Amino acid sequence: MRSLPDVRAPLRLRVAAREELTPVVVLLTLVAPDGSALPGYAAGAHVTVTAPNGHRRSYSLAEAGGPAPTRYVIGVLREEGGRGGSVSLHDDVRVGDELDVAPPRNAFPLLPARRYVLIAGGIGITPVRAMAAELRARGDAEVTVLFLTRSPELTPWLEELREQGAVVHHSAERGRLDLWPWLAEPDDDARVYCCGPTSLLEEVRALTVHWRPSRVHTEDFAGVSADDVGGAPFTAVWQPTGERVEVPAGTSALTALRRAGLPVDGDCEAGTCGTCRLRLVAGRAHHRDLVLDDDECAGGFMPCVSRAVSEELVLAPPTG
Ligand code: FES
Predict the structure, then answer these.
(1) Which keywords has UniProt assigned to this entry (predicted)?
(2) Does one domain contain both 36 and 119?
(3) Can you give the pTM of this predicted structure?
(4) CA-to-CA distance for 203 and 220, rounded, in angstroms?
(5) Which of the chain's ends, N or C, has fewer CB atoms near its CB within 10 Å?
């Protein structure tokens, strides 16, 4: 019997264009080398790119999606203190190079509403730009875009967003933007989406505690730092051998499993690349990654950032 193709297998894509959007953000346009259509996606989706130095990083797609796009466009923020993936994409990638790209996934989908408040901080504008474009094309909802950056020089797509009516706020000139006027009135016909640094996400969550939680959607695209796994201790049971591994607070399950000599891969250690994926056989997990979608959370677990709700989790290597 012929096996089905693996739709999650990486695509080999060519860099068709690169543009320095700001001193720290480069825009990469990725296409199929033969010009064929790429797997479809909807706004809010991201792809995982393997940089020339071997590190894998996830990036939101910056354009509205569709069933058969001919290109993926990503904005890469240069992160000097990171694990080197973004610096390699900035310094080592030229037009014509080919990169491995895992097909789009969407952990931040646009759900139906009559009104949207889209809030972006810094490079968090990439999914918000795609969402705004998709909503404009649909034309059936009221959309407000709030874009917070430090200065005009560090603001990608500044003119485009202003022309589209976005509120663009530079904190170096005018201090913090008070978001309360847009969030004061909870509205069951509205949804709030926010992508940006953790501090902005926390502010938006604090300002929307009186909203129904299902109407507020946040995404920290820096992922979760491996040094910030926190959480209560739990026991990871390695199903193939029955070995019990204690995972202390402040230590990731990935680190604990590796210290115990168990063969678990990892790369980004931030819940974004998908490399460390395990099977969740039993127990209740607190999923903190950007890899698994809702359906996959029942049977998957990313040990680099996710924790347990139950006292123990039974884990196994991925199948296949
Ligand atoms: S190591 Fe990248 S998702 Fe866990």
Answers:
(1) 2Fe-2S, Flavoprotein, Iron, Iron-sulfur, Metal-binding, Oxidoreductase
(2) no
(3) 0.76
(4) 13
(5) N
